[in-house]
Write a structure and sequence with these properties.
Blueprint lengths: L3 H6 L1 H10 L6 H37 L3 H37 L19 E6 L12 H8 L2 E2 H8 L5 E2 L1 H20 L4 E2 L5 E2 L1 H7 L17 E2 L4 H6 L5 E3 L5 E10 L18 E11 L4 H18 L4 E5 L11 E9 L4 E12 L1 H6 L2 E3 L7 E2 L1 E9 H11 L7 E2 L2 H4 L7 E2 L7
Parallel strand pairs: 4-8, 7-13
Antiparallel strand pairs: 1-10, 2-3, 5-6, 8-9, 9-15, 10-11, 11-12, 12-15, 13-14, 16-17
Length: about 425
């Protein structure tokens, strides 16, 4: 969301930013719309002033017994009232059109975001660890999970249709263990406060973080007008909506483990097998609310917090800087963490860590008051997966698989698994 006054002050800056995302110039037509709105507003003020003056003259005319003059003035007031009503209607139309236009435009990329058209132009920043070596052909997670008797897509399809899964036994516990491990690390070592947020939210909440109106078709909408959250970023970030925070309270660091729901409307034909792209999945989310002068460093910190999960699970991964053409709608700058999946023989995204600047804060009305100042400023918001739990489970299955189809449990998770070291196949009883 953008301030039209800022666009008027420097239209070239905004057009240059949007051009990096492949958009045509936007500033001048937005300014023309705003100019018309302001002209209507100015005309309304004139009309209201004229109506007030005419009303005063009516009173004086009646007091002086000038009934004919008063009647003319009454007609004038009636005409002014009708014109004001038409002007107010037009002012509302123009204001709504401007707000809708501004809310549909994506965030401006940071200066150091690499140029590019799509994910093929993303830039690798660093890698951690080595690819695991196998003396057999590694399998993909869905073959491993099904052979274990602990991952059932057919049962899920019977219940809910495509893009769902039923986990049981040790795999269900492994997903729970991963979430607990992630939350424990983020809350005890990295200073995040755990939140248990609602999973259903209102339009204004989805608007605040940028899911609405542009991405309505990607969301699950209930009959009574609520939305199932696509990520805990939505409720966590909106906790500061319509707030003025003290600078001393920042940075605010929040984390939550929730189910997430996405229609995946644009994913037809992509990852139709397995757990990579589902309508329902679980995720541990990280959100930071901070000041403009610290948000860059906070972005690096948040990314390293997400990375540390992968480090302690001893998974091979790389960190990618997203290019302008692959940047998310609300993002000013994004790092993706991509974990190595030997069954697929490629890296796959497991976390996106984004700095949104004041983009979401403007939509939410989230501000802070700098110490010693009266004027408020918009906060900066950040979010990232810390991590996507289902995709982490996928990575463990593929990286810790044995030739006989069993799965080794990483050392970091064994205490969460009751000391279990290896997950063995079972006879599925569903």
């Amino acid at each position: 969301m953008f301030d039209i006054k800022a666009i008027r002050d420097d239209p070239q800056k905004f057009d240059a930013g949007w051009a990096r995302r492949g958009l045509e110039p936007q500033a001048h037509w937005l300014m023309d719309l705003d100019k018309e709105r302001r002209e209507v507003t100015a005309r309304l003020q004139e009309l209201q002033g004229a109506r007030n003056e005419a009303s005063r003259k009516i009173g004086r005319a009646k007091a002086s017994g000038e009934d004919a003059a008063a009647a003319v003035l009454i007609d004038d007031v009636a005409n002014l009232k009708s014109e004001i009503q038409r002007g107010e209607s037009r002012e509302r139309e123009l204001g709504l059109a401007l707000a809708q236009a501004l809310s549909a435009l994506p965030n401006i990329p940071a200066q150091d975001v690499p140029e590019g058209a799509d994910e093929g132009d993303n830039v690798e920043l660093r890698r951690h660890g080595e690819k695991p070596a196998f003396d057999f052909n590694p399998k993909e997670h869905f073959d491993l999970g099904s052979a274990l008797g602990l991952m059932n897509f057919e049962a899920a399809a019977k219940l809910s249709g495509a893009r769902f899964v039923v986990l049981s036994g040790a795999l269900a516990r492994l997903e729970r263990a991963l979430a607990a491990f992630m939350l424990d690390l983020h809350t005890t070592e990295f200073g995040y406060t755990e939140i248990d947020p609602p999973l259903l939210v209102q339009d204004s909440t989805m608007f605040g973080t940028g899911q609405l109106p542009k991405f309505a078709d990607d969301q699950f909408h209930t009959q009574d007008g609520m939305w199932l959250i696509p990520t805990a970023e939505v409720p966590l970030t909106n906790l500061v909506r319509d707030s003025i925070l003290d600078e001393a309270a920042l940075p605010m660091r929040l984390t939550a483990y929730t189910p997430c729901f996405r229609l995946e409307a644009g994913a037809a034909g992509k990852d139709t097998r397995g757990m990579i792209r589902q309508h329902q999945f679980s995720k541990v989310e990280l959100v930071s609310i901070t000041t403009p002068d610290t948000s860059g460093a906070e972005h690096e910190r948040l990314t390293h917090c997400a990375e540390e999960i992968l480090n302690r699970l001893d998974l091979h991964y790389r960190v990618m800087a997203l290019c302008t053409g692959d940047l998310g709608f609300s993002a000013h700058k994004t790092y993706d963490l991509e974990v190595w999946l030997p069954g697929q023989n490629k890296f796959r995204e497991i976390s996106s860590c984004s700095l949104c600047g004041e983009f979401q804060a403007r939509r939410m009305g989230a501000r802070y008051r700098p110490e010693g100042e009266k004027k408020t400023r918009h906060v900066h918001t950040l979010n990232g997966s810390g991590l996507a739990v289902g995709r982490t489970l996928v990575a463990l299955l593929e990286n810790y698989q044995n030739a006989d189809g069993s799965i080794r449990v990483p050392q970091a998770l064994q205490s969460y698994m009751g000391g279990l070291e290896v997950i063995q196949p079972v006879q599925l009883a569903l």
